[in-house]
Amino acid sequence: MGSLRKMSFDAVIVGGGGSGMRAALQLAQSGYKTAVITKVFPTRSHTVSAQGGITCAIASDDPNDQWQWHMYDTIKGSDYIGDQEAIEYMCQTGPEAIFELEHMGLPFSRTEEGRIYQRPFGGQSKDYGAGGQAARTCAAADRTGHALLHTLYQGNLKNKTVFLNEWFAVDIVKNADGAVVGVVAIDIETGETVFVESKATVFATGGAGRIYASTTNAHICTGDGVGMALRAGFPVQDIEMWQFHPTGIHGAGTLVTEGCRGEGGYLINKDGERFMERYAPNAKDLAGRDVVARSMVLEILEGRGCGPDGDHVYLKLDHLGEEMLNAKLPGILELSRTFAHADPVKEPIPVVPTCHYMMGGIPTNVDGQALTIDREGNDQVIEGFYACGEAACVSVHGANRLGGNSLLDLVVFGRASGIFIEKQLSEGITLKEATEEDIQRAMVGLNRINQSSDGENAAVLRAELQTIMQNYFGVFRRGDYMKTGIEKLDELRLRVENVYLDDKSNSFNTARLEALELQNLFETAYATAISAEGRTESRGAHAREDFQDRDDENWLCHSVYFPGSKEIGKRPVNFTLKTREPFEPKIRTY
Amino acid sequence: MLNVSIYRYNPEVDAEPYMQDFEFDAQGKDLMVLDVLEKLKIQDPSLVFRRSCREGVCGSDGVNISGKNGLACITPLSEAVKGNKLVIRPLPGLPVIRDLVIDMGQFYAQYEKIQPYIINNSPVPAIERLQSPEERAKLDGLYECILCACCSTACPSFWWNPEKFIGPSGLLQAYRFLADSRDTATEERLANLDDPFSVFRCHGIMNCVQVCPKGLNPTKAIGHIRNMLIRRAT
C-alpha cells in the first residue's frame, strides 16, 4: 500500500448534523481552518427529522420561567445519573444559544407578542415540580429540526466553512502518544481514501438507532463515531440507555412528535380508555418517555392493545380540531396519512414504542473533550479528541432524555466544543505527527473489506443484528434473555468481521459504506448488550424484570464499557452545581 | 410479479447507461418505492441510490419515478406503477455519477448564489428579534423546502440554463429571505437577481409545482419576486 494523500486542518468535525454544524460554525467564525466531513449532504442529517422542538427556559410562554426549573426537570428525568454540572451548563447557557439561532434566521413559530412560541412537553414543570405543567419547548411548527438544521447550514455557508460532503470517516488515526490526530476518510464519489489530519478531531456522528429492527432513526444512524472510538480502544458510557419513543407509527417506525400530546392529544387502548391516567395520575400522557413507553407495552401485554393483533395503541388527536392540527402539527398530518393511512383529523394514529435515542456515547467533559478512565478510576482527557451531540455522553440525559432536550444538547455542546477548541488553538496545539504505521493501523478494517473473497452480505447480517437487539435488549430486559442475546452476538461477531464485499468498484460504492457501517452498528450493539446485562437494576430507560428497583447504593453511577476487555466499569456521577446545592436522588414519579 | 426497470450506470464498468429489469414481488403490499430499492439492493448490492430519513424530510432520494420526479420514500407503488411496470431513473438534467445518484453541484451553486441566510446588520437584541404571527406566516410554504431538487430538475428552463437561471428551488429560497421581516437586505437581494436569466427565465411552466413532494409553490414565489423587481424598476 502506498501512502495516502494527506489534507490538514486546524479542526475537523466528523458529522454534519446539528452539533457538528454548530461546532463548525463557531470555529469558522473565528477564522480557523475548519472542515466538516459528512457522509451525506449536511441537510440530509438526522437532525432534520426532529419535530416538536427545542426545550429552553427563554421565558416566552411564562415570563417568570427559570432555567433552574428546567435543570431540575432534566436531572429528575435522567433518573439522577445525568451529570449535574453539565445539565446546569446546558440549561443556563441555553437561552443564549437559542437566541443566536433566532438571530441567524431560524423561523420559529410566534406568540401574539412576537416572541418564540413554546409548547408543553413531557417531564416539564414549574417551580421544581410544585407548580404544574410548564410549556418550555420552542417550536417551528412541528418541523423544528428541519428549520434548525437548514439555519445552521446557512450560517456555515455565510461563514465559508469547508464541507467535505459525501465523505465517510473510516477510522481514527492515533499517534505514538495515543493522541487523536485525524481520521482516514473515503471520498464517496471517487472512492479515494485520504488521511485527514487535524489538531482537533470532533465526533458529531449522531446516534445508532439502526441497531434495532424498529426505529425512528434514519438509515444513516449507524453509530459510526461510537464504532470508531471503540475500535481505537476508547470507552463508551451508559450505552445501555436507549430511549424508546412512545409514539412511532406502527409498522413504519416513523416518529410522531411528543408535541402531539403537548398540544392535547392522548393515548387510548382498545377500550378507548385514556390509560396513562392510571400509570401517571398527575402528568398523564406527559410523563417521562420511559414511563409512557413502558405503560404502553404493559397495556399491549395485558391484552388491551389495538388492531387485529393487539400489538399497538392509538394516539387520539381528532378532538383538537382540523384548524389547530393544520396550524400546529402539519407535518404529523402528512406523515400519518402517508405512513399509517390514517387521517388524524378523523381517526387516531396507531403507535408503538420505537427505538429513538442513544443516551450513552463517548464520555466527555463540558468542553467536549473526550475522556477515558485510567486504572485508578480517574478521568483522563484524550488529547486531540472531542465529541458532541448524540454521539457524546456529556452526560445531560442520564438514563432518560426529556423531549426537546436533544436539540438543546446539540447546539449548546456543539457551541461549547467550538469555543473550547478555539481557545486551545489560540494557545497553540502541538501533537506528534502520525507515522505511516499509525495511518495504516486505521486502514486495517477497510483493507479487510476490500480484500474479502467470501462471507455474507452486509444487509443480511445487519438484519440479524437488528433482530437480536430487538428481541433481547428492548423496552423490558431480563438477565437470562440478555445472556442468550450476548451469545448470539458473539456468534455473529465472526460473521460480521468476515463480511463480503462483492462490488469492489470505487465510484459512489454504497455497498462498501454499508459494510463499514455494519462494523459500527455491531460495536455499538455489543457494547449495549454487555452494559445492559451488567447494570443489575432498573433506572430510566433501562427496565429489568429481574431487578425491578432502582439501586442507588450500587448503581447511582455511569457504566463505562471498555472495548479491550469487553467489560464494564463504573464512573461517578457529577453532583457539583456552581449555582446551588445539588439535587439529591428522589423516587421518580409523575 | 412487478416489473421494475432501473437506470444503471457505473462509470468504471459501463461504456454507457442502460435500463436493467428486475422482477419484484411486493406480496400485495403498497410499499414505498424506496422499500423496493432497498430490497433490490439486497439482491444486487451494486445498485446505488441516496437515502437517509425515509420519511420525506431529508430530500436525499429524489428520483424520476415512472416519468415524474418525486421522493422514493413517500411515493407508494399504487401511485407509481403503471401497467405493472415501475420505471426508476435519476433526476433529469444534471450529470449522473452512478445509477440513480446525480451530481447536484449546479443545483447547490444556485442555492448559494441567493445568499440563503438572514442579512441584518443592526445590533442584535438580548432576546430574539420580535416577529408577529402574521409576519411569520409569510414564511409558510417557503421555509419547508428540503433541497431535493425534484422541482429544478423538472424545469425546462433550468435544463437549458443551469448556470444562469437560479431555478425554482433557489428562487423559492430567495423569496423566503425577501419575505422575512427580520431581513434588511431586500435591495441587495433584488439587485443580485435583476438580470435576464436569474429570475426571468421562468416561463411559468409550473412543472415545479406539480412535482414538489412538500406541496410548495415555487412559481408563486417567483411571481412575487418578479413583482418586486418590476416595482423596483419603476
* Helix-and-strand structural type of chain B: alpha+beta
Q: Helix/strand/pairing class of chain A, anyone?
A: alpha/beta
- How much β-strand is present in the residues of chain A? 15-25%
What is the overall silhouette of chain B? elongated
Share of helix of chain A, binned? 25-40%
Strand order of the largest sheet of chain B: 2-1-5-3-4
Mean of pLDDT of chain A:
97
Q: What letter string, H or E per element, gives the SSE order of chain B?
A: EEHEEHEEEHHHHHHH
In CATH terms, the superfamily of the largest domain in chain B is Alpha-helical ferredoxin
Oligomer: heterodimer
For the biggest sheet of chain B, the summary is: 5 strands, mixed
Give the termini distance of chain B in whole angstroms. 62 Å
How many beta strands in the DSSP annotation of chain A? 22
For the largest interface, the chains and their residue counts are:
A-B, 62 and 55 residues
The second-level CATH architecture of the largest domain in chain B is Orthogonal Bundle
**Low-confidence region ranges of chain B:** none
Descriptive account of the structure:
The complex is a heterodimer of chains A (590) and B (234). Chain A has 590 residues and is an alpha/beta fold. Chain A contains 17 helices and 22 strands. Chain A starts with a strand and ends in an 18-residue tail after the last strand. Chain B is of the alpha+beta class and 234 residues long. The termini of chain B are far apart. Chains A and B meet through α3, α4, α10, α14 and α16 of A and α4 of B.
